[in-house]
C-alpha cells in the first residue's frame, strides 16, 4: 500500500456559510474532489478519497464549527494511520490579499481559531498549512463579520483560477514535495 495523505479543508457547515471567506478551505477540498471524481460521505465530517500516483489522498471537511476543527482532524489521522507530516490543512487567511496563497510547514496559527484548534489537538505544528488569502476587512468592519460574508462579485469571478492553483499546489505537494508546491503558488503570484 502506498503512502496516505490527509487534506483537511477548514470551514463552517450549513448553507448559510457556503460561499463565505471562512470556507476557503472547504472550497479547495471541493475542487480537489471534483477534479478526481471523489464522492463525499459522512455526517459529522465529510470525507472523500482518491489515488494520486500510487498515493491515497483523503479529503476531509469537519462539519463542526470551524473553531472546533482540531478534534475531527486528529481523529482522522489516527483512524487512517496518516502521519502528521502528511497532513495538509487548508484555511482562509486575512494576512494575504484575495488571490494570494501560501504553503508553509510549521509556524503558529496566528489569529485563526480553526488552525489554533488543530494545533492544540495535535500538539505540534509539524504539518503543512495552505493559507488562502481573503484580505483584510474594510475599516470599521469586524473580523468575525468579514470572514462570514460572501465573496464579492469580482472575487467570485477570479475564484476558479485561485481554486485551481491551490488544488495544483496540493497535488504537487503530494507528488513532488513542498518546494515544488510552493513554486506553483509563487510562480502564479509573479504573473
Number of domains: 1
Report the span from N to C terminus: 39 Å
Q: State the CATH class.
A: Alpha Beta
Strand order of the largest sheet: 2-3-1-4-6-5
Q: Kindly report the name of the CATH homologous superfamily.
A: Peptidyl-tRNA hydrolase
What string, H for helix and E for strand, traces the elements in order?
A: EHEEHEEHEHHH
* Count of strand segments: 6
Radius of gyration: 15 Å
Q: Which stretches are poorly predicted, pLDDT < 50 over at least 5 residues? A: none
Mean pLDDT: 93
GO molecular function: peptidyl-tRNA hydrolase activity; tRNA binding
Subcellular location: Cytoplasm
Main location: cytoplasm
Function: Catalyzes the release of premature peptidyl moieties from peptidyl-tRNA molecules trapped in stalled 50S ribosomal subunits, and thus maintains levels of free tRNAs and 50S ribosomes.
Task: Report on this structure.
The protein contains 6 helices and 6 strands. It has helices spanning 24-36, 70-80, 113-122, 143-146, 153-176, 178-189; strands at residues 4-9, 45-52, 55-62, 87-93, 101-105, 128-133. By secondary structure, it is of the alpha/beta class. Helices cover 39% and strands 21% of the residues. It has one domain (4-189): Rossmann fold. It starts with a strand and ends with a helix. Helix 1 packs across helix 5, helix 2 crosses helix 3 (113-122) and helix 5 (153-176) packs antiparallel against helix 6. The chain has a 6-stranded mixed beta sheet with strand order 2-3-1-4-6-5, sandwiched between helices. The mean pLDDT is 93. Monomer. The record marks 92 as: Stabilizes the basic form of H active site to accept a proton. It is found in: Cytoplasm.
Amino acid at each position: 500500500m502506498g503512502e496516505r495523505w490527509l487534506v483537511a479543508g477548514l470551514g463552517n457547515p450549513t448553507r448559510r456559510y457556503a460561499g463565505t471567506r471562512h470556507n476557503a478551505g472547504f472550497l479547495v477540498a471541493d475542487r480537489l474532489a471534483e477534479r478526481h471524481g471523489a464522492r463525499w460521505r459522512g455526517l459529522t465530517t465529510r470525507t472523500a478519497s482518491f489515488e494520486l500516483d500510487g498515493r491515497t489522498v483523503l479529503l476531509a471537511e469537519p462539519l463542526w464549527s470551524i473553531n472546533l476543527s482540531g478534534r475531527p482532524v486528529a481523529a482522522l489521522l489516527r483512524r487512517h494511520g496518516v502521519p502528521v507530516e502528511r497532513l495538509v490543512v487548508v484555511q482562509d487567511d486575512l494576512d494575504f490579499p484575495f488571490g494570494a496563497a501560501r504553503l508553509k510547514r510549521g509556524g503558529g496559527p496566528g489569529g485563526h481559531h480553526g488552525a489554533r484548534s488543530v494545533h492544540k489537538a495535535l500538539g505540534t505544528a509539524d504539518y503543512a498549512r495552505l493559507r488562502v488569502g481573503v484580505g483584510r476587512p474594510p475599516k470599521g468592519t469586524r473580523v468575525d463579520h468579514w470572514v462570514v460574508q460572501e465573496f464579492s462579485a469580482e472575487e467570485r469571478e477570479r475564484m476558479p483560477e485561485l481554486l485551481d492553483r491551490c488544488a495544483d499546489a496540493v497535488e504537487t505537494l503530494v507528488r513532488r514535495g513542498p518546494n515544488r508546491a510552493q513554486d506553483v503558488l509563487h510562480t502564479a503570484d509573479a504573473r
